[in-house]
Design goal:
The protein is α/β, with parallel strands linked by helices. About 35% of the residues lie in helices and about 20% in strands. It has a 6-stranded mixed beta sheet with strand order 10-9-8-11-15-14, with helices on both faces. A 5-stranded mixed β-barrel has the order 1-2-3-5-4. Helix 5 crosses helix 12.
Length: about 350
Amino acid sequence: MKSIKNLGFSDFHEKSLEPCDIENYKISRITAEHKNSYIVNDGNYDYFATISGKFFHKLQNEGTIPVVGDFVLLKKDTLSPAIIEKIVPRKTCLKRISKLNRKSFNISNKEQIIVSNVDKVFIVTSLNQDFNLSRIERALSFVYDSGASPIILLSKSDICDNLDELMDKVEQIAFGVPIIAYSNVTKDGLDKIKSFIKQGETYCLIGSSGVGKTSLINNICGLNEKTIKIREGDDKGKHATTSKALYVLENGGMIVDLPGLREIGIFNENEGFDTTYSDIEELIGLCKFSDCTHTNEPNCAVRQAIKDGFLDERRFKNYLKLKKEQEFVTDKKQAMLKRKQELKRISKLIRQMNN
């Protein structure tokens, strides 16, 4: 048990297990995903692992699969490959909607768990044309929903001529969140990033392809992880990693590299959204009318804040956009649940008629 705790297995995870689980299974953590298999580590050794047939059938019904960061229970005495029988309940998980399809109820509208059991998330964005405050706001909401804590990293500081100005803009939308500017070329800021990584804690990096995540992983971990060139003649070249992997650092901290996320969708939770836009939510509560649309009504605190320069209109428009997405997802989930209940009722009636 001591060995697996070095990989972040906490009291939360231990309390979620039955005594028979500890006796009958070996606890390991998924450190890499492949097409039909995983690499897991029990705190001492790496193993190839696959999902048992019975567990695979259960996962298909539940609509979830093991991901990097998961603690799993392996069938004992099977090492080549190891057999995954259960997923230990997740402490945190980053999840999104894989595709926002407004016309169907198919699987593309279900949640997609990207990585689990992460303590802190580095949100990486470049200090070039990739810099986008609305994208940072979306990422903050995404991270808060997961239960993890965000840290914002601004890469390519060596080619930025207005660093202080951009840092100020980020500070205005990321209340109390650590913000670090760094360069993979000059190494400025890397020591400060390393100082945030603590023994036994898990971190991951999210951000668009080409912002410098894999180069940062290489610098922090001392690796030479391969990257794939995806564009030329732009910001001195862009690169992307293609698979998830968890690395253990010399100080005992762990970091997960994720493929570039082209789109982060809002999923069912309200907490992350409310935390990200707590200033706007507070202003809305000060409007004269409870059903204020923040357009032409008198005594609208939101419009007044925009007029006085206390609230950026871009930020408010992004708030409305993400709010609309969130409401759509909530409505669709309720409709899907209602449909499922109706199908269950019809199936029950058919069985009764046949009997």
